[in-house]
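Hey, I was hoping to borrow your eyes for a little while. No rush at all, and the record is pasted right below.
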Amino acid sequence: MVVPSPTSMIRTKKTKAVGIPTIDLSMERSELSELVVKACEEYGFFKVVNHGIPKEVISRLENEGTEFFSKNSTEKLQAGTSTPFGYGCKNIGPNGDKGDLEYLLLHTNPNSISERSKTIAKDHPIKFSCIVTDYIEAVKELACEILELAAEGLWVPDKSSLSKVIKDVHSDSVLRINHYPPVKKLSKDNLDPSKFQNNNNTIGFGEHSDPQILTILRSNNVGGLQISTQHGLWIPVHPDPNEFYVMVGDSLQVLTNGRFVSVRHRVLTNTTKPRMSMMYFAAPPLNWWISPLSKMVTAHNPSLYKPFTWAQYKQAAYALRLGDSRLDQFKLQKQEDNTHYHHDT
C-alpha cells in the first residue's frame, strides 16, 4: 500500500510539508503495479521499502565513499578530474553551474569501473571495483523491477519493453556519489539571497530533472533533498538510509507520452553534518531511439514528442544550463506552445 512518509516541517513561501508515496514491494503484484503508476503520475517520485537489497551492499559502498571523500584535495584530484568520469568538485556540467558538493561519477560498464578503481582506490582497487559492481547490480535489478511493474500498470503488452534497455550490455547507465560538506552560515553582510533557502541553508545542487529513464537514490541520514510538485511547491524529503527513492527521468516521461512526469528536485546543504547520496541513473544505449511506446499513442492522444536517440538527447541536455527544461526542443507542439506563450505575455 501507499502510505505518507514524514517530511521536514521547514516551510517557505514555496515549500510545503506533505506525505510522499511509500510503496512496499512485498505487496500483491497487480495492486503494486497500479500504485507504481499512480506515484509516477502524481509525483514522479516515491520511496520503496522491502526492496530486498542487503544492508551490507549499501553500507560497503557508503564506507568507500566516506573513505574517499575524507582524503585531502591532492589525493582526491589524483582520482582524475571528471571528464566526465572520475572526481569532480563544485562544477555541475560544462556550462558554468556550480554547487556546494564534490562527487565521484562512474560509468556502470565493468571495464570502466575496473580502470577507475585504480586511481580512486589505489591501495585496494579490486575490492573497490567489486563493491561498486555489487551495488550497481543490486540497484539495476531494482530499477528493472520497477520499470516492469510500471509497464504492467500501463497495460503495455511486453512488460520488459522498458527494463530490457537497462539490461542491455551497451547501457549508458552511470553511478554518482555526491558528498555535501557542512556549509556554515555566513554573516548577514555576506549573504547572497539567491543562494539561500530555509534557515539560511545554501543550494548544494540546483533545481533540475534527470535526463535518464529512472533514478534510484539512496542517502545517509542527513536531509536536504527536496522535490517540486507540478504546482511548483517544494517538498522536503525525509532521509531514510535503509530505503531507496525512485525518480522518473525525462526519458521515461517521453516513453509514456507525458503520462509520467520527470520530477524536478534540488538539494540544500546542512550547516553541521555532511550529506552523502548515491544515485544510479538508468539509461539506454547511446544509439537507442526514444519515443512514446505504441500503447501510449492513440488517435485521441497523439505523440507529444519527436523521436530521438539517447546520444542526441544527452548532447542537447548537456548543452543547456542545469535548470533549463530540456524536453521543450523535442516537443512536437513546440511552435504552437510558443505562440500561446507570446499571446499570454
Notes: The two ends are 44 Å apart (CA to CA). The chain has a mean pLDDT of 86. The chain is about 30% helix and 25% strand.
